[in-house]
Amino acid sequence: MPGLPESAQSAQSISCPSCAEPLEEGDRYCGVCGTDVTAPFPAAGSDLPGTGHSGNGSTAPRNGADPFALAPPQSPAASAQAAPDRPAAGAAAPAAPQPAAEVADPREELLAGPAPQGRTCVACGVGGVDADGYCEHCGHAQPRLRDHQERELEGVAAVSDRGLRHHRNEDAFAVAATSLPDGTPAIVAVVCDGVSSAYRPDDASAAAATVGSETLLDALEHGSPPEQAMHDALLAAAHAVAVLAEEDDGRQGPHHNAPACTCVSAVAAGPVFTVGWIGDSRAYWIPDDRDTPSARLTEDDSWAARMVSAGLMSEAEAYADERAHAITGWLGADAVEIDPHTASFQPEGTGVVVVCTDGLWNYAESAAELAAVVPADARARPLHCAQTLVGVALDGGGHDNVTVAVLPFPATVGRAGSEPA
Question: By the 8 A CB rule, do 405 and 275 touch?
Fold first, then answer.
C-alpha cells in the first residue's frame, strides 16, 4: 500500500543546533529562535538566544490520550505572546469585500510589501533588516507576508497562519467568485497544504491553489458541470505541481525529492455545493441549525483511512498507529497515482462549508467537534468564523500551519465576481 514517496521519507534535513527546528538549505538564521546557524555553536552552559518556540513542528500520532484534544480556551492574544513575530488570529481588521479572485501565493512576497532595506526589526527595534528578512542586530526573523493572510470576498472568506511551531507557512489558498452561463453565482475556495517532507512544499501549494482556482473558474464559466470542473481542476493543479520538479533553482541536490502538496476545494452554486480533494485536507458541512447533524464530506487519502476502509483495523486502532497520518495520495511528480475525488451535496437547510488543512482538524477532527467551535453566526460572518477556527488551532498548540476557508450556503452573494466568458 503506497505511502509517501521513498525519496520524501528518506530526505535528510538540517536542524537548528539550538532548538532543533528544521532549516532550509542556505538559511542563515533559525526562523524560530533566531540562532545564527552559520556561527560555531556555543559550548555547553553558554547563553543561547531565546527559544520561546521549541520543537520541530511534527504531529504526534493519535492515541488513547488524544494529543489533539482541544486545550482549555486561551485568548488569541495569549497565542500572539507566544509568537511575537506573528499576528494574532483575528487581530487584523477584516478586509473590504472585493469582486475579483484572491490567491494566497508565497511568490507575492516578491511583489508586495516594502523592501527589506530601511525596515527596523520588530523584535529589538534597533537593527536593520537584511535582504533575507532577518535582523542584522539580533538575528530575529521578521514577519513575512505569508505568515498570516486573510481574504474576504462576497460569499467566501479564508485565513491562513504559520502556526506556532513551523518557521514558515507552507499552506496556500485561493477564493473566487464567478457566474455560470445562466447567470447563477458560483463561489470557489481552494485550500492546499504543502508536504513538509518534500522539496519546496510552499511552492507546491501555491502552484496548486493558483492553477486549480483558475482552471475551476474557467470550466464553470464555460458551462462544465461542477463535478467535472472540479475533477479537471485537480488534474491541472497536479500537473502544475509536477512540473516544479523539472525546474532548476540552483538548490537542487542529488537526493532532492519532488515538490508535493494536498488539495481540497469547494464550489457553491445554486442549491448544490461540490467538493473535490486529493490527500488529507478536508471539507465539512456545518448547518445553522445545530440540532441537525454536521458532516465530514471528504475521506482522507491516508494510511489510517485505508486500514479502516479495508476492515483491517478499527478507527481507534488505526489512528493510534504511528503511520496513521502518512498520506497515500498527493499532488506531485512522484505521486503513485493522481486520483481526484469529487462529491456533490444538496442539503435541506442553510449553513457553511468549512474547507481546511489538517492544521485545524487535528484539533477538532469529527464534524461534531468542529461544529462545537464554529460560531453561530458563521454564515453571516464567514471571515470571523475563519479567524475563530484558526484561533482554535493556535490555542490548541499550533503544531502545524493552519488554513481555513468558509463558504456560506446557499451562496450569500447578490452578484458574481466576474462575468462569464
Answer: no
Burial 148-183 (b: 16+ CB within 10 A, else e): bbbbbbbbbbbbbbbbbbbbbbbbbbbbbbbbbeee
Question: Tens digits of per-residue pLDDT, 62-95?
Answer: 333 332 233 333 333 333 333 333 333 333 334 4
- Half-sphere exposure of residue 158: CA atoms within 13 angstroms, side-chain side: 29
Three-state secondary structure call for residue 54? coil
Question: What mean pLDDT is predicted for residues 50-60?
Answer: 31
Residues 11/255, Cβ–Cβ less than 8 Å? yes
For the chain, state the CA radius of gyration: 21
Contacts of 19 (CB under 8 A, 6+ apart): 30, 32, 33, 35, 51, 53, 54, 55
Q: What are phi and psi of 287, to 5 degrees?
A: -75, 155
Task: Report how far residue 65's alpha carbon sits from residue 84's, in angstroms, rounded to the nearest whole number.
Answer: 30
At residue 315, the pLDDT reads: 85
DSSP state letter for 398:
-
CA-based nearest residue to 255, from 4, 2, 8, 5: 8
Amino acid occupying residue 49: P
How far is Cα 226 from Cα 41, in angstroms, rounded to an integer?
Answer: 56
Contact 185, 79 (CB under 8 A): no
Contacts of 256 (CB under 8 A, 6+ apart): 7, 11, 199
pLDDT confidence tier of residue 252, bands split at 50, 70 and 90? low
Distance, in Å, from the CA atom of 338 to the CA atom of 325, rounded to the nearest integer, reads: 19
The number of residues in the chain equals: 421
More confident residue, 351 or 48: 351
User: 286-335 pLDDT, tens per residue?
Assistant: 999 999 999 999 999 999 999 998 999 998 898 889 998 899 999 999 99
Q: Output the nine-digit C-alpha cell for 98.
A: 472585493
- Residue written as grid cell 488505526: 318
